[in-house]
Amino acid sequence: MSSTVRTTLILLTLVVLSLSFFFVPSPPWVDGYLLPERPPERTHIARLLSLIPESSPETRLIAVKEIAGFLAQEGLWTKRAAFLSGLASRTPDSPLTAYYLYLLARQYQREGAEPLALLYYRRILEGYPDLLIEGIPLHFLCLRELADKEKDPYTRIRYYNLLIQRYASRIDAGVAYYFLAKSYEQAGMWDDAIRTYRLFLNYPATSIPGEPEAYLKVQELLAFHDSPKNWLFDDLESLFDAVTYAIRTRNAALLSRYRAKVNFFSISWEQERTAKNAQVIFDFTPFFSGTRVRYASELDPSSTPSEAYLRTWGWSYRINVWYLYFRRVNYPFDPDIDGKWEWAGIYFGEKF
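-> structure tokens emitted (352 positions)
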């Protein structure tokens, strides 16, 4: 063999060896469509894919997370879903499959396929043991989504109870108790709702998203629940007649009897209701000792089927005009009470 031929064969051998170093073949269970077009990334993803079948669970988890992250970064969501689904179908009994399904659920949620995402969260929760992902329990992540998105109140009750029982240190317990109580209400489980609202009041620093007055409203609900409720009227007309009669006859004691005994407030129109001004002890006697108090013959036009305002004037030289505020009682805990009317407060001054 000539030296030229020998040299050529040596060079070809070196080229083949160098290519085998840079281009790692994908494992036999992976279709080629998963591999990127760009050589450096193709090599890297192929190496990660080769780690999945035989490596330890920790290494496999790292490899899958990196591949899924790369596909998401490239916007290859269909390939990502196929990759994760393929892994899950090949290893249905592996604890790591719960993580593959979780990544799929998050992707479907991102794409607006909420029912499908919730299906996967439920499958993880009911079919696989809990798994720590970067120190966070996978069941906790699933329960948090399920409790927030579930429409059925009975199922939502179960999820919130599991969150509180298993992961109390990872959640705002006040928020969990509030929405658990709401769920009990929706399910018609009134005693459980009241019990849970009492637990919610143990967390005064809790902020309920989108409901800045949640704490005050729960305080008022429980105060009303624990009261005798003996100031209520069957309808608005009866309440109107009773209050105006007390004003017309200048009977302060009778007027005091007709006002709500809990949560009664007296504020100006620009004030916000607080726990302090909702616990007013009001004496009408001094206001009947001077000029005559008068009232409008009809309710204010801004009144609604659930709220009504009565304009009155002549109370004092400082604040002459008061609007008496009547409201329909919302109390589904007792059908005999729900829908009755009460005089709930006073607004001082003319309406804006």
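The beta strands are 132-133, 136-137, 265-268, 294-295, 307-313, 321-328, 341-348.
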